[in-house]
């Protein structure tokens, strides 16, 4: 793939931005000769026009803080987007994408019952205990969209985790904490994003204080919002912010107009990554299928094209600035059971309540050997000897490692500026939400070596082809997949993925431009 003017090859699937970090997931293949480099974001954070949503329908790179901008002329106001209907997956894949087809199951091929039994057997072997996969599946459970859309501010029928968020963070407090937020980042959208993933601000039955955990989780999430989406504009005042219609709101009118807004309160300024507009196709954040030799992720998370037939960019969108096609695809699969819904319409991650749901999904999503951010905050992840040897300990610093550790953590010495920004914001949000920050909490990550294989968080949940010999099958093939500790499109976190893995590895063919370019049947 292409990023920042260089070609990169992933050693395994990762949400981290390509870099030359030692032992990292990326291999630098050298500079590009084409025009696929990511454009340099402009210094002035001129809000991009919010497109009108269409009726058909989201581990991400942290955007580099932009230089202090020069105020621009007041842009023409755009209309507040009308919420779109929940998309219905069609199952139809665009003809220009790689097409996965399957030959008929040969005689003796496993039955559905045998697939289910094999998946259950592997699930009991995936972690340090037999319940590891059950915990992962519980972390990823979702609420049906009909119930999410029914959420209202203060609604009596709101889900438990939404009521908890409302109890510890009311609408007035939310709006005061984010006075320059883009108009699409509403309190209601935040509540709907929370509702979609019940593991966020969840209930606990083992004595843990759910409200206290929720407060700490919110402070942690908001600190990362500041780094990911903040204006980072030291001289930004309410008077200046009000000249941007997409950021003007009633709270700004109540503030001292000429006093600079604290940096932690500048979060949620960016809805889309600075320098990009919806529909752009300049070759950024793409791992797209080009034929034989392409990554397996480019097959199962296929890039889409815009109306001009150009491959669209999966630049950062929403409060987590979700980026790369494989992240949009994985999020879409969690949301709709169909990767193509958001791969074809990534703008929904900016224009609807998915702008918060994408960040909350990332917070609850385990990426072995990393735990989900929620498990760091609520104590589910307890460091073992491997973690201790790698200086991994519970606290805000571990969540930075989960968010963008490949770029911001490790190496020793002073904390990098991005981490310092995150820590400063975390302390402020903790104060605002009455969250105690223990003196011994590991806030930084410079000394941390990361979550490694053998970590208490490491779970072999991913599936790849089992190359073993089975004399009972034609040609000795195994007709099986095995657990691996590197990332793959197939995971025991998703019931049914075991069968999908076996089917693809032994019966699958990939057609591209009408030709079979990958044949797993031979």
From TrEMBL:
SUPFAM superfamilies named among the record's database cross-references: Carbohydrate binding domain (SSF51055), Lysozyme-like (SSF53955)
Sorted UniProt keywords: Disulfide bond, Plant defense
Gene Ontology CC: one annotated term: extracellular region
GO MF annotation list: carbohydrate binding; chitinase activity
Disordered: annotated span: 1-91
Presence of the UniProt keyword Nucleotide-binding in the record: no
GO terms for biological process, alphabetical: carbohydrate metabolic process; cell wall macromolecule catabolic process; chitin catabolic process; defense response
Compositional bias (Pro residues): 42-86
Glycoside hydrolase family 19 catalytic domain mapped to chain residues: 287-437
Compositionally biased intervals (Polar residues): 12-22
PANTHER family: CHITINASE 12 (PTHR22595:SF79), CHITINASE-RELATED (PTHR22595)
Name assigned to this protein: Glycoside hydrolase family 19 catalytic domain-containing protein
Species name: Chitinilyticum piscinae
Lineage, opening ranks: Bacteria, Pseudomonadati, Pseudomonadota, Betaproteobacteria, Neisseriales
